[in-house]
């Protein structure tokens, strides 16, 4: 590859809304045959809204919203933003938080009104001896079957509620997956979210059920990329979150959503400036064409 031809590719990339770290990046896209897509914020809009408050027997909705809303107000996670905004809408001003711990890929913990509150995955509450009571297990399963992301809320030794947030698939994601397939790439969905939500999103955009990896903790995302590489695949990864940074760095080609976090953008080789997933296909086509021209 001659430097001049690669520079032309880089300039064309800028026109398409692709920022390329260096011309040599185009070379590493040549052999890409698999493209791993993060779900939240990449395939979906990532702007979730609170759509349901499911209560354990005897629990007041106002208490749940005040405590969970206050705690989530301190977190930047898309689920947290939805919970905090929905709670503020329904109950008004939220109380202050004393201690706050972010538990990446699991949830948050903190002290509100003198009570230690947990909000996050069911597994997080179970690990703290706050298993969901049967009525919440049933309600949560129904919400997830409907495509919602359900997070549990607990305090003082008891799971109290399940909050349901929903996130829409971006209107262009299915088209993006079609274009990636047309280039001969195998699309894979990777998410920390639950299996039911992941399956619904995969079906909507055209990713095979066998290529869905759900309930993956942030540090395990790298392992999924490594496992695919161990199968002799050359892997591109598209992501937006702090949680995706290590996986973007591990991938043979890391594509960061320009609408995502600085950590993802720093870890990626390319940035899709407008956060348009269809441009991922343009980037790969551009790299291939640039390299063919210079042969
Ligand atoms: P993704 O891989 O889809 O971007 P994450 O790895 O960030 O998702 O999170 C995985 C799951 O952990 C979320 O779907 C949610 O259930 C839970 N979670 C993470 N952070 C929070 C939070 N601040 N509040 C509630 N739940 C959270
Ligand atoms: Mg994400």
TrEMBL record:
It comes from the Bacteria. This is Cation-transporting P-type ATPase B. Belongs to the cation transport ATPase (P-type) (TC 3.A.3) family. Type IB subfamily. It is found in: Cell membrane.
């Amino acid at each position: 590859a001659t430097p001049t031809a690669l520079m032309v590719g880089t300039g064309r990339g800028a026109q398409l809304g692709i920022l390329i770290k260096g011309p040599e990046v185009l070379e590493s896209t040549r052999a890409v045959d698999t493209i791993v897509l993060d779900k939240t914020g990449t395939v979906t809009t990532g702007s979730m809204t609170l759509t349901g408050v499911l209560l354990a027997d005897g629990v007041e909705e106002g208490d749940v919203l005040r405590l969970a809303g206050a705690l989530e107000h301190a977190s930047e996670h898309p689920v947290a933003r939805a919970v905090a905004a929905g709670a503020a809408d329904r109950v008004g001003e939220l109380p202050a938080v004393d201690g706050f711990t972010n538990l990446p890929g699991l949830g948050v913990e903190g002290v509100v009104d003198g009570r230690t509150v947990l909000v996050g995955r069911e597994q997080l509450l179970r690990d703290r001896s706050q298993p969901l009571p049967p009525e919440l297990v049933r309600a949560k399963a129904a919400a997830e079957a409907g495509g919602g992301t359900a997070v549990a809320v607990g305090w003082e030794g008891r799971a109290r509620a399940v909050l349901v947030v929903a996130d829409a698939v971006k209107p262009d994601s299915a088209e993006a997956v079609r274009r990636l397939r047309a280039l001969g790439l195998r699309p894979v969905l990777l998410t920390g979210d639950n299996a039911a939500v992941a399956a619904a999103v995969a079906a909507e955009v055209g990713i095979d059920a066998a290529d869905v990896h759900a309930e993956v903790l942030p540090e395990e995302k790298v392992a999924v990329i490594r496992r695919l590489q161990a199968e002799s695949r050359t892997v591109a990864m598209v992501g937006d979150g702090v949680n995706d940074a290590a996986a973007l760095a591990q991938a043979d080609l890391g594509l960061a959503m320009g609408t995502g976090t600085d950590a993802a953008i720093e870890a990626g080789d390319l940035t899709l400036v407008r956060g348009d997933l269809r441009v991922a296909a343009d980037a790969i086509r551009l790299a291939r064409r640039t390299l063919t021209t210079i042969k």
